[in-house]
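The freezer alarm interrupted the setup, so I double-checked each line after restarting. Inputs confirmed:
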Amino acid sequence: MKAMELFSEAKEIKKGRIRIETTKDKVEEMIKKLKNNGYEHFVMLSCIDWIKDGKFELVYHMWSYKYKEHVMISIKINRDGETVPTMSHLFPQIETYEREIHEMFGVEFEGNKRLVSFVLEGWPHMPPMRKDFDTEKFVKEHYYKIPEVKEE
Amino acid sequence: MLVEIFITMLILALVAAALNKYPKISGIVTFFASLIPFLVVISWSQDIGLSFPQFLKFFTLEKSLNYNIGIATFMLKITPLGWFFLLLLASAFPMAILFSITFIKKNAGGFYAAMITSMIGSMGILLAQDILSFYMFWEIMSWSILALVMRSHDKKAIMSYLSFGVLSAMLILLGIMLLYSETGTFVFSEMGFMANNTTLIALSLLVSGFAVKGVLVPMHVWAPYVYSRSEEPFVAFLSGGLSKLGYFAMILFMYSVVGISVLNSWGTFRDVSIFGYTLAFIGALTAFIGTVLAIMQDDLRKLLAYSSIGQLGYIAIGIGIGTPLAMTGALFQALNHTFFKSALFLAAGAVYYRTGKWKISELGGLGYKMPFTFLAVLFAIFALAGIPITSGFAAKWLLYEAAIQKKFLFITPIMLIAGVGAFLYSYKILYGVFLGEPRHNVKEAPLSQLAAMWLLVLPLIIFLIFPGWFVDLTSPILKWYGLMPISHTPYTITTSLAAYNTLAVILALIGGLILAFALYFSKPQKVVPHTDNYLAGEPPELYEHISMHAASKYYEPFDEVFYPFFKRGAEMCWMAILKFVKILGEGARAIYTGIVNDYSIYILIFFLLLVGWWLIW
Amino acid sequence: MRQEDWSKLARIMSKRSLWMVHFCTGCGAMEMPPVLTSRYDMERFGMISMATPRQADVLLVTGYLAVKTLKRLVQVYEQMRDPKYVVGFGSCTINGGMYWDSYNTIKDLSKYMPVDIYIAGCMPRPEAIIDAFLKLMDMIDKGEATGWKKYHKYYKQYKRNQKMAFSYRLDEVKDIEEGDGK
Amino acid sequence: MVMNIITSILVMSGMVALGFAIGMLFNGIARKVVARIHNRVGPPVYQGYIDVFKLFSKKTNISHGWIFDLAALFSVGGIALTFLFLPVAGVSMLSGEGDLFLILYLIAIPALGFALGAGASGNPNAAVGMMRALMMMLAYELPIAMVIVAMMVYYNTTSLAGIVAMQSNLKWAIGIPPFLIGALVADMALQGMLMEKPFDIPLAPHEIATGPLVEFGGKHLGSIILYKMMGTVVETTLFVDLFLGGGVVLNVNQFGWFAYLVNFIVWFVLILVVFLIAVIINAVFPRFRIEQALKFYWKYDALVALFILFWIFSGVMV
Amino acid sequence: MMKEYELFIGPNHPGATGNMSYRLWAEGDKVKRAETRVGYLHRGFEKLMEKRLWMQNVPLVCRICVPEPDINEAAYSMAVEDLMGWEIPERAKYIRTIILELARISSHLMTVGSIAASLGIYTAAQWGIGDRDYILDIFEEITGGRVYHIYIWPGGVRWDLPKNARELITKVLDYLEKRKPMYDDLILNNKVFIRRAAGVGVVPKDKAIEWGVTGPNLRAAGYKLDFRKLEPYAAYDKIDFEIPHYPKLGEYEVVSDGSDIYTRTAIRMLEIVQSIRIIRQALKDMPEGDVLLKQPQWFAWKVPAGYSYVRVESSKGEFGYFVVSDGGKKPVRVHVRGASYTHGINVMETIAPGLNIADFAPTAFSLDVCPPEIER
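Predicted 3D structure, all chains:
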């Protein structure tokens, strides 16, 4: 069945692109349902930092080869202290996406055992993809302050 | 005098057993006891026609000893063949004891007593001139080995030894009975008889009985268990020394008792008797199978056990072919094997003594920690693999030449490929134990252990440069059998096919090394630890520990190709033999259950009774 | 022959036999295959790429360097044997190039290891790369490519800078152990 | 007497130097030929000399301890020693002092030295590479051993010099039908001996980063490369001695120094041709996995060799 | 004590597919466990793009995937066009098709060469990279850059093709068609190659979609799925071409079942043929006209708020751009889905246990793992 028929909250933003806004406790159910109804390709998991609202938006992208439809399930969580249950048991590649989002945004995924460092190594500062992390300032204070090698 | 020697050794064995509480003193006493056979051998050297200098003749010993008892005559006499094998055993034996002084800690008295009785048994076998004394000493030797195997407390080892020992004893007994019924005498020299089928059966039974000691396929099944479970000094002596008794007995019965003309009368193939050819083929098969199985092992002792099987196969090839070249080769291989395999087992013991590990995959990097052990092993392995840096090559070369001389088109490639296979498991030992990632922080082995190993390695280096000396050593045997000794000088051996000049090899090697050194020296160099290895750029300090030792399942692709064949083959062999043996084993166990410890004392009592009986009559 | 003659001969020989480390640190590595293969064929000048740093003479830093890569690069550089040369490749090694404000890439390679020659551009054309290598050969011939000596001489400073970059915090780096590099 | 010894030592050192020189030249030629197949120009033919010189002139040398150093010593020393025992263009330096079996075992000395060094570095890549190298050795030894045994029995000598002498007056072994097939079998084995594709499994850069060579550099690598380069000369010469009469075309007693010159040129051309065949096969094949190589040699190559054995066997029986 | 030993394939290793690393736990010659380690190329693109104007991001995006930069430009441009609601000129669509297909050929040539090289046929790599250079020459002629072109822009392409483009491209395509039998003889019909590649590194068919496998790797597993047909972009809907997929491997004998090294290589080889066909058609059918929408103030764009996910079929698989705008001058979030993200990490880690060490690098190469698209 098509996503529009499956979920009442689904809305089509353009041809072949469907957006569903929901809450985090319903996500697992929805992904399972979509997976069983022809949406078998999990495209990616994305995170958006809406700093003005104090929210992170997690977007689960799924695609159906059958209906040629792309579904984006979007949930919003608080920027600080809110955890999300992991979905890595549904699609194996979600584990990696969660690992990356954990590292880049600091979102905690409950139940994901592999939230170890992914891209960065020994990063002591705030997760860099957050909007309040100013990369220009960091570069100026870090890399440009490393002294040149002085030749005596 | 001969009797006195036996009695002295026995008394020393009793003393050693009595000193059970003081393992070191007991060991030292045994060490002195173990020197006696060696002195005896040296003192006999002139009697068998070797021109040793006079000062080596320590004391005069009677050469023979006859006792009559009712129906039969017991005769002991030194022959060139017996002398040669006694030399091997008598040189390996003290080294095993020297090694045990620091190695054996638990219940040492029993160990030493059993070791000495096994040596007494071997001496008796080598001197025996009649079937009865031969069989009696054979049993003494076998039972004292059992006592030593019992010390492992490993059911599988004990059971397999016991069942194969009984099998062997039965085969030998049957053979002896057949021979006796055919000739009506026990004395070897009186057994002039015709070539008929009974003799063939008797000889086949005897040879297959001896093949159990000589671990020829398919009688090898017990060896890996016993070799890999018992204590190292004993295994060194068992594999290095006692296994030669099987080959001694084969030569004795095939060429002395039965005689080459009788063998040939059963049919020949290219002037080699079919009987001998079969033995040679089994030998080649043994060499190949032993080698392949050795490559697959992870347990150091098991690897050495299978490599023993593989290397002993070569001796059978030489005995089977039976030409002067082949006999010299077989005897040379026997000598090499005695020294290098004893040294290797002792080195394995030393490694265990320091690290407490047998598995190759759990060892590693000991080469820098135990450099002298490593060098001893390296030389022993050169001998084992036949690299022309030790005498190991000469023996194999003689056997190859002998096979080509007889145009053995199918045995020679098998021998060659088994020789190459030896490189594989040798490197497994070298890499797995001594090279690779250093994992154990240990000291060099104790001095007595090192001394034992190095004294065993030394002859290999001496006979490398002067293989002619060895040929001198064996020429009395060849003459005794009416064969022409091969032409040689101290450092060259010439055959009808080619010549081998060790001096040229050594000088060229030295030349090559000088050349390499000239290219090599001068620049300063920096030694880095293994942690600074190339890890595809990954800095090791980021990781707690990076495991770099690849010794586990080292020849895994090889195993994958060969395992299916050998699994099935070994299984079938096992099934057939085990079923047969289990019945015997059950019976044997029924008699011997309840005896917990220290079999040696019982053996001693048995032996005392036997000797007493023998002396009174 | 005198010592100088020998070292002159050694320089002439080693300039015609530069072996590179096979390490694609950044996107500049995309132009290395054409340089090494049939179109431009650097083997004409004796240059081939080797698998491990132990065997190689030239470290080619092909493009931007993430801090994580810099750690590996330093390891590789220290595993190489003297004399060794570093070629900085692309604008990113000079000043960060396109990624001047990226939090994860270093901006100036010469702070962390001595660079013998830079190639500008994003990314440099194969012709530019060949030209740079010919210049490097020239420098070796004249004895000017002395980056490896510099690394030994100012080892402490280089080590300090590397540590500063690795830890992402300048205040944590205080004292550097003694040593002169490998 | 003394003069004789000095002369022979001089001749031998000259020959070893020549062997190394040819080995380095072969390296350059091989790279040039492969480059032409790749559609490129390739390095100059003297590139081998430059590379070796550079490696020996490196300033620091990183070692992994004395066992590691043994590798370099044994590999160069051992291969030079092996070369001395081969008859080269009919000139027998020490080949009268040992036979083919000795040569087969002498080749193992540098290999074992190399193996020791590779193992001593403690690098897993080196260990895996060495495992593959030893298994390759086991694989290709079987067919080549069968062919060699067949030749030994046929010529009734085990001496390589003897086999070469039997083939004088252009009665090359390759002209005898079983040994024509034998030469093909041995050429397959040679491919493995020279570690050229499809049998360059021990080095396999994409899999184990050049395997045993992984920790070698500077003079250590220089020694190993010298060993490899000389190894090509030794192995191709062995092939030429066995099947192509050692390149002897003119009788030395009859033509004097001119015969030496011609023989050397013929020998050089022959080993070059044998080597180039290997190099060209190398350029267009991927490499096997190690168990595939083992199966290839023990199944197909050895089967053909067994056929030759039976052929010779029936001949001998008759 | 650990029985396994550890091998690092990469970052400084000939068997590494770029600057990434696999940490292997192996025993004997078999891999027991593998871990993909990435992050050596991380530049924080997505962060940098949030700091730059919409138009400034164009030169940035092409750096994300180095072997095939044009798909990034195309996908980013399409996402912006999607949010803006633009319809680009017809000629621009055809030019985009030509450029993307040329890029696909160049990428596939390199991949096929690398797969062959990782199995030992260095000649194939030399030829492949040598022939790829002719395509780079075309790019240079059209765009001025060899590797990074910055040619496809939001609103079309930067400028029209040069006058001699048709001859140039046709010449190279003819040459490539002439070369193809040589490649076949060298690689796909080579008996030793078949021995090495068939049945190795298998991605099972029933798991392929669930694991997120896309592109040629998915087609090698037996699905006839291609985003050029499923969601046509540029001018693909007007062009007739086939989707090579297992088991329809054309002239190559089917020696394996499913997505193994051999089929993945064969699919790539067949796709080159299809790309040549597409380019020829596009060159023939291309209409005259504008190539770029007339848009003033390149640097003052304000893109309407919204979410847009745009995918293109790259040579490695599905390449997606998730672009979020809040109506400002800069994007709020650009998230790139590289095809290698699943291939390189999840699939490799799952299929690695039991692989031979010898087969590990060829498997990684045949999945065409490209690290910069993983970590960006």
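Quick read of the result. Chain C touches chain D at residues 9-10, 13-14, 16-17, 37-38, 41, 43-46, 50-52, 54-57, 79-83, 182 (CB under 8 Å).
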